[in-house]
Amino acid sequence: MQIESIGNFLKSKDIRPSYQRIKVYQYLVENHNHPTVDTIYKALGPEITTLSKTTVYNTLNLFIDHGIVNMVVIEENETRYDAVTMCHGHFKCEKCGGLYDVEIDNNILENIDVDGYEIKEKLIYFKGVCKKCLDQ
After folding, report:
1. CA–CA gap between residue 99 and residue 94 (Å, rounded)
2. What are the structural domains of the chain?
């Protein structure tokens, strides 16, 4: 995704498109690795010398508040981020630590009704060993 189109996208979501915000969002869109704050900071830090971990945290929280990024928490001590906001599942490899998107039948999720409760989030994740690790 080009910087100009990301800037326009952020504006359309009422987010001021600073260079740092554009680069963080671009990283998320171009790298489907469900990164942590540290991963983003280490990747962008050499290019953006004024970038801090606090800025990355604040940017990601802003994106979450505006619905353009999701937080993915599968392990208690690990928060990752995902620019794919449509409903999908995640698979965490117990061997390599990779986190992968998993397509799910959204019709099943739409028909789930928890009587007397208001559902705010639907999170589906699986743990096991990924294809790459099984082939080794």
Report:
1. 10
2. 3-82 (1.10.10.10), 89-135 (3.30.1490)
